[in-house]
Amino acid sequence: MKLCVLGATGRVGQYFTKMALQNDISVSALLRNPEKFTNSILSQLSFTKGDVLSKESIAEAMKGCDVVFSALSTDGASVLSEGMPIVIEAMKKEKISRIITISTAGILQSRTEPHLLRYQSSESKRKLTRAAEEHHKAFTQLQESGLDWTIVCPTYLPDGEPTGTYRTEKDVLPIDGSKITTGDTAHFAFSLLSKNDFSQSRVGIAY
């Protein structure tokens, strides 16, 4: 298997990338800032220097890949919603059908108001919804893409090593779930490479 990893130097992306390399999986990463990785990590992967808004960079990073993993953040702007259509187009050209992405629990269905997403409902305590709106746009783009996608939706996300012990639930946040570490979010996303339990689904994850 060869993976194309987007957002490899991010908080979840770094854990995911290291897990792939430790399992002898070939990684092609799109890196805006390669210096964020140590030389020992860089020497184990192939990378393209560029960003998600560059069609040429995305196409280069995806060459020969079987699966795409994205831990891209919103960067406080519209990078995610502008970048996802470029990613989808490049995947189709490269005949890659599978994509696993990291999003936010805000785009899961609300338990209290099931017709709404969590960020639109009283379930969410966040006053600012811009990031969730960006993730919502990317979710809609994937829904309409015809690809085999899974969106991993962590709640409060402190840094932390993977334990492998957590709860997941399709389309909603596990009951009373209040946090999940970056390491365990990556651990679950990595586990999806070997199974297809959540095809074309969002997955809530929490302790």
How would you summarize this macromolecular structure in one to three sentences?
With 207 residues, the protein is α/β, with parallel strands linked by helices. It is built from six helices and eight strands, in the order E-H-E-H-E-H-E-H-E-H-E-E-H-E.
Structure report:
The chain has 207 residues and is of the alpha/beta class. It contains six helices and eight strands, in the order E-H-E-H-E-H-E-H-E-H-E-E-H-E. It has helices spanning 11-22, 39-42, 55-62, 79-93, 130-143, 182-191, and strands spanning 2-6, 26-31, 46-49, 67-70, 98-102, 148-154, 167-170, 201-206. The chain has an eight-stranded mixed β-sheet, with helices on both faces. Helix 2 (39-42) links the parallel strand 2 (26-31) and strand 3. The longest helix has 15 residues, at 79-93. The mean pLDDT is 95.
Quickly list its features.
30% helix, alpha/beta, eight-stranded mixed sheet, 207 residues
In terms of DSSP E residues, the strand content is 15-25%
By helix and strand content, what is the structural category?
Answer: alpha/beta
- Mean pLDDT equals 95
Query: How many DSSP E strands?
Result: 8
How helix-rich are the residues, as a percent range? 25-40%
Using only CA atoms, what is the Rg? 16 Å
Fold blueprint:
Blueprint: E1 2-6, H1 11-22, E2 26-31, H2 39-42, E3 46-49, H3 55-62, E4 67-70, H4 79-93, E5 98-102, H5 130-143, E6 148-154, E7 167-170, H6 182-191, E8 201-206
Helix pairs in contact: 1-6, 3-4, 4-5
